[in-house]
Predict the 3D structure of the following.
Amino acid sequence: MPKIRFQKRTSVSMARRVLNPILFVILALVFCGIFLAIVGFNPFEVYGKMIDKIISVKGIKNSIVAGLPLMFTGMAVAFGYRMNLNNIGADGQYAMGAILCVWFALYGPDMPAVPKLIIMFILAIAGGAFVALIAAIPRALWGVSETILTMMLNYIILLFLNFLMYGPWKAEGQSVPQTAKIDERYFLPDIGNTGINSILIIAIIMAVLIYFFHKKTSKGYQMEVIRRSPSAANYAGMSVKRNIIFVLLVSGAIAGLAGFAQVGGIIHRCQADLPNGAGYTGIVIAYLAGLNPITVLIVAFLFGALEISAVAVQLTGVPSQIATMIQGSIMLFVIAGEFFNRYKIVVQKKGGVGA
């Protein structure tokens, strides 16, 4: 009886890399279309609304805006995983960056816009890095799983965020658990008349800096060596412990900038459950981008488009749960496609091997 196994591909052609996700998105839409038809909706009408929402100038702008926090969480996760460190805590780091940002914007001293924004930027970085540090030290010194630590910290920080939003920081007269808006002087400007906030420029600069950090610096080289073989890195005199702390700190700092993006550039306040799973979505984005920070920007934009198209789906009368299912299905199918990018099915027959 033939046996089926998966074999890792030695190389992946550019055509496969481009066409594979397109194919699996189409498969996801076919799957969801069948489901929509079964429950009584016209899949062509639903998908038409989704496409109309995305391809307009306004749709592209909204997709970029929706993707901005995902760019930072995606880069944060990708940075950690370049040294096999699983930063699952980008949600909590994002939230802490937002908390410190809005605290200084609302309750800090009155000052000119530029220094105020610079301090908000630094506080967002510091907030994310601090949360990551709590996990980095036990991981570096005692080998405690950073996956578990960062995930647990998510719950702690998000509960703290919600306590502030429902309690002492809730704006007067608001039914929604959120702070008051920060002063307009401290809004990050848009890029010209595009309606796209200048935080996009910061995201692009960050992606380019990370790319060259990995390619051109000794620290980036050390990360690669440690990822491949920690014992060889130790033998070569590289401090694995110091690098673990450094990488998780930087990863957390990048995630914290998602909070700065929201407070300074997008909604100009803090809200309960602000990250809304952006840290977990960042894991998928980093994986699909192949840990390349520049590719992360593109994938995050596509996920932003997927997010706003789900809103359009609800306008056709489709329940929000089904809209979420469409989002989730596309994500799962694309992830499955990435698996088949890396592995091929091999059928092992009696007396030989065939594929």
In short: The chain is about 70% helix and 5% strand.
